[in-house]
Amino acid sequence: MCGRYVIKSPPEVLRALFGYLEQPNFPARYNVAPTQPVPVVRMWEGRRQFALVRWGLIPAWVKDPRTFSLLINARGESAAEKPAFRNAMKRRRCLFPADGFYEWRRDGATKRPHFIHAKDGTPLAFAGLWETWIGPGGEEMETAAIVTTTANTTLAPIHDRMPVVVPPDAFDTWLDPNADATMAAALIAPANDDLLEAYEISSAVNRTANDSPDLIAPVPPGAEPVVAEKPKVSRKKDDRQASLF
Fold this sequence. Notes:
Elements: E1 5-7, H1 11-18, E2 29-32, E3 37-44, E4 47-55, E5 73-75, H2 86-91, E6 93-98, E7 100-107, E8 110-118, E9 124-134, E10 140-150, E11 161-163, H3 171-175, H4 181-185, E12 196-200
Parallel strand pairs: 4-10, 5-10
Antiparallel strand pairs: 1-2, 1-7, 3-4, 3-6, 6-9, 7-8, 8-12, 9-10, 10-11
């Protein structure tokens, strides 16, 4: 799965890569967590659009979001069949701009956090699905989930799942709501083994209140890191979590 990630590229770099017209100005974030507002890129009225949505998808048919499990990830192998993701997979695919993500490797009773990013330092695009939930009073909330797949050889020693990484030349195929969903589904595959690198980091990332470049610093060789159990994802919004903007 993917439960935390990083966005640190300058806004102009992401705008050039993803090709949207909006000019958002936002700070670097080193510990983006579920339920927070996050940026996605989607097709809207025939062009790519930058939008803020809540990380944690709520299907349109849900009556009360407070009683619905938080869906931060969608398993790519079954997204086209699962009721929660089926409609979004057909018509509402998006991209999550990111500069890397965190995963935890189990070591006995503990889990050791790792940072995974592109070897060349360039931003990544995670495949995503988005939905609009409309409440009984007409209130609207846009939400999204990251699509995952089986881990490649880089990630397999750490975790058995990873986000689907969409290459720039396939952005249109994934985003186009009129494209054949079968073609889009063909992009759901592990990233090339030479794309990413992973290394162990401090357990400071376990606290969502921590948000600084220090989180992605490698654990010094030979050091014995302080390890803490990975916290569980709450289904309720944590007001202590920083907003992306």
